[in-house]
Automatic annotation (TrEMBL), chain A:
Transmembrane segments: none annotated. This is Oligopeptide transport system ATP-binding protein. CDD domains: ABC_NikE_OppD_transporters. Keywords: ATP-binding, Nucleotide-binding, Transport. The keyword Membrane does not apply. Residues 6-258 form the ABC transporter domain. PANTHER family: D,D-DIPEPTIDE TRANSPORT ATP-BINDING PROTEIN DDPF-RELATED (PTHR43776:SF7), TRANSPORT ATP-BINDING PROTEIN (PTHR43776). Belongs to the ABC transporter superfamily. GO terms for molecular function: ATP binding; ATP hydrolysis activity. GO terms for biological process: peptide transport; transmembrane transport. The lineage of its organism: Bacteria, Bacillati, Actinomycetota, Actinomycetes, Micromonosporales.
Automatic annotation (TrEMBL), chain B:
GO terms for cellular component: plasma membrane. Residues 14-265 form the ABC transporter domain. This is Oligopeptide transport system ATP-binding protein. Coiled coil: none annotated. CDD domains: ABC_NikE_OppD_transporters. The keyword DNA repair does not apply. The lineage of its organism: Bacteria, Bacillati, Actinomycetota, Actinomycetes, Micromonosporales. It is found in: Cell membrane. PANTHER family: DIPEPTIDE TRANSPORT ATP-BINDING PROTEIN DPPD, OLIGOPEPTIDE TRANSPORT ATP-BINDING PROTEIN APPD. One of its GO terms (molecular function) is ATP binding. It is a peripheral membrane protein.
């Protein structure tokens, strides 16, 4: 397929747990990302959902190259980002940028907005010549709906929503094809959230961007995504088109997650399928054998602890699902 | 138990009338609450809904009497608990009400619990101070409480420190603490905002069960319209320090009467349908030092007319029985 812009194969990131001060010995590993395969196509949005600690932010960092994977590959336009070095790596990185969660800490308070958005040009001077930079930054401000005359202001002079726009402008500066958004709206108020979501959608149409949209808010992810991947303890347990995931989920974890999301309609109260999970997510340093969800799963049987279910199409799952007993159950709509 | 003289058990549980709170800062006076009105009955859940800076948390702090002063001052209004105005009684009695009758849980349990004492000590402290129990008895009651909030292995966990608990368990500890002295009113300020959805469902379920068992009045402060739809009986929507709409939960979601409520409902993405482009509320909430004349929402409102931009601000029009909206054109918003 030629329209795939990004593809990971068996991506793994383990963080070592060490003991000792002078002689550090490795006693274990936190398996933050443990074998993830994703594909992103041109102009589409891939939503990645999961609870805290499932590895979704580590995945984001690996994709933009802020962290080196333990093993696996990240193919962007036929090049393996993991193996690139020096100038080639620098050039390849232009193509994949990131928008961060917290607009209050991700902007340097001592830099003007112009310097923040223009900084990528310092590192990649070939993109825009020095003379044209102020103009380029002003154009970017205009693109994201901020006043181009505010180029000399500081981040504290902007509201939360406006700051997130600055972060988006910075990500757009190098004209990337792919933007990884790590919880871009979760720090914002509802009325502002909608403004930023609409902006992201508009930019996608305008520039043909592909997004990896990482969030814990399933409603927001459904709204913006074409396809959705559900993560649990470093693995993708189910993925498919938004309709498949939200209306015909087959993995028990996806079903539990969806049933726990409150829907803003009191008429559905008591008419929805409620699955309340027991306990907490196990530690990624010591995940359960076999299926990682089996310790909280109501369908678990012996096979689940012995055999690791593969993410694949199954008899009763028309889209890939990593469950031996995958079966469609609509939990979102009222009974 | 009579903690405050003058308490009349037949009087309404909690009634807040025309509450005004302001913060006097070096940049000017910020009017955080500008005449909030609401009431609460036993066994009922009232949701106070609003975005950051709308005054919902300050209102809760004023009811609890934990408003930092200075810079915060209550300039007007009354908070009646069972016929006693809490703003008119000495601090010592206020303290008794706070522990025994009205309790509160906070968003961030890790910063609300004391990190250098065990959970057991912090719970037992309540019983020893307020009930004069012995150490052993207080410990027994603490274990009982942790059991009630469904913390597995309560007997052993009582000697753990707050950081040893997960986020959801920590929230349970705080709920246990708030409920220790059997309050009649529980104020929950964004109790699940910091939690994952599956844990949020557990905690909201627990709160609902405990409320039912004890016939408690619950004030749920939140910005999440989904959570509200699931648990609330009535809703007060706040904007710029005022309750702009108050209504039973079914009415407000079916037919909002205030443009702000309506815009909020249209601006949230839904789990159960793939919507079109979201309707946006343009602009930003006003700075509380500089609230617009007339209706505070008028610069962002699509129904705004000249009357909205002039003082006085719209009064609380009666829309239906038990239902008010501060909008001159509520009929238009309702679609009549």
């Amino acid at each position: 397929m030629s329209d795939v812009v990004l593809e990971t194969k068996n991506l793994v990131k383990h963080f070592p747990i060490t003991q000792g001060i002078v002689f550090k010995t490795k006693v274990g590993a936190v398996r933050a990302v443990d074998g993830v395969d994703i594909q992103l196509r041109r102009g589409e949005t891939l939503g990645v959902v999961g609870e805290s600690g499932c590895g979704k932010s580590t995945l984001a960092k690996l994709l933009v190259g802020l962290d080196k994977p333990t093993s696996g590959s990240i193919m962007v336009r036929g090049q393996d980002m993991v193996r690139l070095k020096g100038n080639e790596l620098r050039r390849a990185r232009r193509n994949i940028q990131m928008v961060l969660q917290d607009p209050y800490t991700s902007l340097n308070p001592r830099m003007t907005v112009g310097d923040i958005i223009g900084e990528p040009y310092e590192i990649h001077p070939e993109v825009v010549p020095k003379k044209g930079r102020q103009r380029a930054v002003q154009d970017l401000l205009d693109t994201v709906g901020l006043n181009p005359d505010h180029i000399n202001r500081y981040p504290h002079q902007f509201s939360g929503g406006q700051r997130q726009r600055i972060g988006i402008a910075r990500a757009l500066a190098l004209k990337p094809e792919i933007i990884v958004c790590d919880e871009p709206v979760s720090a914002l108020d509802v009325s502002i959230q909608a403004q930023v979501i609409n902006l992201l959608e508009r930019l996608q149409d305008e520039f043909g961007l592909s997004y990896i949209f990482i969030a814990h808010d399933l409603s927001v992810v459904r709204h913006i995504s074409d396809r959705v991947a559900v993560m649990y303890l470093g693995r993708i347990v189910e993925h498919g088109y938004d309709r498949e995931i939200y209306e015909q989920p087959t993995h028990p974890y996806t079903q539990a997650l969806l049933s726990a999301v409150p829907v803003p309609d009191p008429r559905l109260r008591g008419h929805r399928d409620q699955i309340v999970l027991e306990g907490d997510v196990p530690s990624p340093a010591n995940p359960p054998s076999g299926c990682r969800f089996r310790t909280r799963c109501w369908k678990a049987q012996d096979i689940c602890s012995q055999q690791d279910p593969v993410l694949q199409l199954r008899d009763r799952s028309p889209h890939p699902s990593a469950c031996h007993f995958a079966e469609i159950r609509d939990v979102v709509h009222g009974r | 138990m009579d903690v405050v003289p003058g308490v009349d058990p037949r009087a309404p549980l909690l009634e807040v009338t025309d509450l005004h709170v302001e913060f006097r800062t070096q940049y000017g006076v910020a009017k955080a609450v500008n005449g909030a009105n609401f009431w609460l009955s036993p066994g009922e859940t009232l949701a106070i809904l609003g975005e950051s800076g709308c005054g919902k948390s300050v209102t809760a702090q004023a009811i609890m009497g934990i408003l930092e002063s200075p810079p915060g001052y209550i300039t007007k209004g009354s908070i009646m608990y069972r016929g006693v105005d809490l703003l008119g009684i000495p601090e010592e009695q206020r303290r008794k009400v706070r522990a025994n009758r009205i309790a509160m849980i906070f968003q961030d349990a890790l910063s609300a619990l004391n990190p250098v004492y065990t959970v057991g000590f912090q719970l037992a402290e309540l019983f020893r101070m307020h009930r004069g129990m012995s150490r052993a008895e207080a410990k027994r009651r603490s274990i009982e409480l942790l059991d009630q909030v469904k913390i597995p292995g309560a007997k052993d966990r009582i000697n753990d420190y707050p950081h040893q608990f997960s986020g959801g368990m920590r929230q349970r500890v705080m709920i246990a603490m708030a409920l220790a002295l059997d309050p009649e009113v529980l104020i929950a300020d964004e109790p699940t905002t910091a939690l994952d959805v599956t844990v949020q469902a557990q905690i909201m379920g627990l709160l609902a069960d405990l409320q039912k068992q004890r016939n408690m009045g619950l004030i749920l402060i939140t910005h999440d319209m989904g959570v509200v739809a699931d648990v609330a009986d009535r809703i007060s929507v706040m904007y710029a320090g005022k309750v702009v709409e108050e209504a039973p939960v079914y009415d407000i979601y079916a037919r909002p009467a205030h443009p702000y409520t309506r815009a909020l409902l249209e601006s949230i993405p839904r789990l159960d349908m793939k919507g079109q482009q979201l309707n946006v509320i343009r602009g930003l909430p006003p700075a509380l030092t500089d609230v617009p004349r007339g209706c505070a929402f008028n610069p962002r409102c699509r129904y705004a007319k000249d009357a909205c931009r002039q003082d006085p601000a719209p009064p609380a029009y009666s829309v239906a029985p038990h239902r008010t909206a501060r909008c001159h054109f509520f009929r238009e918003v309702l679609g009549e």
